[in-house]
Each structure stands twice: as C-alpha cells, then as structure tokens.
C-alpha cells in the first residue's frame, strides 16, 4: 500500500514538470533582445543562438500544427467528399448530350467554345488547389 501511495505522489509531483508550458513567441523575442543587448554577458553568443533556434522551433511547431489540422480536416471530410464526387459523377453520366446531327454548325461551334472555356476554368481551379 505504501508503494502505491509513493508512486501516486511521485506521478503527481512529476506531472507539472513534464507539462511545462511552451514559451510564447513574444517572450522569446523579448529574451533575445535582452541577450543581444547585454554585450558583456558570458556566453552571449550561445545564448542568442539558443534563443534564435527556440524561435525557429516555435515557428516550425506552429506551422506543423496548422498542417496537421488541415490534414485532419481532409481526413474527416474524405467520406463526404467522395460521396459528393460520386453523386456528381452519377449526375454527369446521366446527362444526355445533344446529338450534333440536327444542330446548325454555328450552334455546335458555340457549344465547343463554351465547353472549352469551362474546361480551361476547371483546369485553372484545379491548379490553384494544388
């Protein structure tokens, strides 16, 4: 029983040490300015380098969190997106395209231009998404 209580207390004491908050970007920038301004401090170069790398790490951390949130959104939305794309595919495949036999040449050319511009617009949108 004593061992269990000792382990429980040990875990409770270590938890705040393990969950130390990440310093904010403004805190690090302020510390970096202070370190750069104190020219006669020992190890000033190492301190500024460490603070600069911490700022870089914080920026990379923020970017990684943003990317992971985007990835998670895509993963979460994937079933809805595939269902919507399948529905659109069914709608497109059920459309009856006009047979060009009874249409005048001017109207056929107009349809070709419309389809071509629609394809160009879709290609542009697709390129923007990538």
What features would you describe in this structure?
By secondary structure, the protein is mainly α. It has a domain at 26-95. 82% of the residues lie in helices and 0% in strands. It is built from 4 helices and no strands. Helix 2 runs antiparallel to helix 3 (44-94). The mean pLDDT is 83. Pfam families: MscS_porin. Residues 1-19 form the signal peptide.
Please report the distance between the alpha carbons of the first and last residues.
Answer: 60 Å
Mean pLDDT, all residues = 83
Helix content: over 70%
Order of helices and strands: HHHH
Shape: elongated
| Counted beta strands | 0
- Based on secondary structure, the structural category is mainly alpha
Measured by DSSP, the beta-strand proportion falls in: under 5%
Task: Return residue spans where pLDDT drops below 50 for at least 5 consecutive residues.
Answer: none
Round the Cα radius of gyration to an integer and report it. Answer: 31 Å
Largest β sheet strand count, sense and barrel closure: none
Please work out how many helical segments DSSP would assign. Answer: 4
Describe the protein's topology:
Elements: H1 2-18, H2 25-37, H3 44-94, H4 105-129
Helix pairs in contact: 2-3
Quick structural gist:
By secondary structure, the protein is mainly α. It is built from four helices and no strands. It comes from Serratia marcescens.
């Amino acid at each position: 029983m004593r061992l269990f209580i000792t382990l429980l207390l040990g875990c409770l004491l270590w938890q705040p040490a393990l969950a130390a908050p990440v310093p904010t970007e403004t805190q690090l920038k302020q510390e970096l300015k202070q370190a750069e301004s104190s020219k006669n401090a020992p190890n000033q170069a190492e301190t500024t380098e460490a603070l600069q790398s911490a700022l870089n790490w914080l920026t990379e951390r923020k970017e990684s969190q943003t990317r992971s949130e985007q990835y998670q959104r895509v993963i979460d939305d994937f079933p809805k997106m595939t269902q919507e794309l399948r529905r659109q595919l069914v709608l497109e495949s059920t459309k009856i395209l006009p047979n060009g036999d009874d249409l005048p040449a001017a109207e056929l050319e107009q349809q070709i231009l419309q389809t071509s511009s629609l394809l160009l617009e879709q290609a542009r949108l697709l390129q923007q998404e990538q």
